[in-house]
Amino acid sequence: MRWLPRSLFGRLALLMIVGLVVAQMAGAVIHLAERSRTVGHTVSHELAQRLAAVYRAIDSQGAGERRRLAVLLSAPRQQLAIETAAPPGTARSELLADFPARLHELLGDGVEVRPVELPRFGAFAFDLYLRLSSGEWLRVRGSAPEEIFAQPWHLALNLALMLLAVVVLVVVAARSTVRPLTELARAAHGLADDLKRPPLPEDGPTEVREAAHAFNVMQTRIRGGIEERERFLAAVSHDLKTPVTRLRLRTEMLADADLRNRFRNDIEDMQQLLDGTLDFLRGKSVDEPLRAIDLVALAESLADDFSTQGEVTLHGPESLRIVGRPLALKRALANLIDNALKYGGQAQVEIKIAPDGVLVSVEDSGPGLPETELEKVFEPFYRLEASRSRETGGAGLGLAIVRQIARGHDGEVTLVNCERGGLRATLHLPAHLSLVPRNP
Fold this sequence. Notes:
It is a single chain. Helix content is 52%, strand content 15%. It is built from ten helices and eleven strands. The two termini are 31 Å apart. Helix 5 runs parallel beside helix 6 (206-252) and helix 8 (295-305) packs across helix 9 (326-344). A five-stranded mixed beta sheet has the order 6-8-9-11-10. It has a four-stranded antiparallel beta sheet with strand order 1-4-3-2. The protein has a two-stranded antiparallel ribbon with strand order 5-7. The protein has three domains: 8-149, Beta-Lactamase, CATH 3.30.450; 193-287; 289-433, Histidine kinase-like ATPase, C-terminal domain (Heat Shock Protein 90, 2-Layer Sandwich), CATH 3.30.565.10. By secondary structure, it is of the alpha+beta class. Strand 8 and strand 9 (357-363) form a beta hairpin. It is rod-shaped and about 155 Å long.
């Protein structure tokens, strides 16, 4: 249902308020119908009895006394008069539906009653003619206080106040129920940023407490697994250095120069593969804290570092501060620049602010990539070149590490072929990481 709010709080509040309004309206309609029925029944009997008593008193008098008595019995809300003729009486009243029958019952079927006007909702006025035994007509006109049958606005006011009070309670109750779930969702989103964040408070309804407890257990297990993996990586990294170093020393002791060069190249390939694999695995670490960094200054330092390998140009603002992991972002930009220099001989780096975040593009003048390979090259250990040479093919982990780091910042990295040739890699960092003030 598209009209429903997307948040659980909005849906709970809306459904509860709608249900409450419908219940209140139904109750109000039932109350008004019952009130009208009760008041109408009571007034119908009371009015019929009063008119019957007045009719008998006047009809029992002589000709002269009837007019005088009619004047004496008249009141501001009930005027009596003796008329010689009467208009046709065809009035009907839903409010006093049983009034004519009740009046006939009290006066007898021999008395003709002609109702010209009968009470209705919003106007309690009546005008009717009763035929006297002398052939004359007793005209009875009157009205009742407006508040008797007026619309009960005080009821509407009471319902509105009651509804307002209950709506406030509903909103408070819904928010207190949803708040733990909101905190759980916020903690789940922030889990990748800080595995060492304090555990969630396990309070609220039973289901919410169980969910918070399960989340805390999951966070503890994930943190323990990552810490164990990092200890393993540290041990492997340390232990592999010794045999690789021994191989290097023994290689240099070989007498055959051609064999020595081949051994040296194989060791370099192995060292590159080990370093790349360890870097890729370390990229999953969330221990590096987020902090404010100058992205332009970081790119300038990398441009200086790679200046000996090829031409690196940088275009962008003088300064651009963001929140990120400095070492991880430096590794990502270094991999992109290194790829551009390997395949294109030069790297054009551009940093700019976009409406949805910060864009860092690295463009080369190389041959580009087939369209079918633009996504595959982000897979770990995928190398496009059949030669798998160390100079150009690498270990196949550079772009995989870049994507891993980008997604660790809630961002993304994409590759596109430029129209004039070459390949453009674009690192997108979301807007919430930028510390640059934005126009509202």
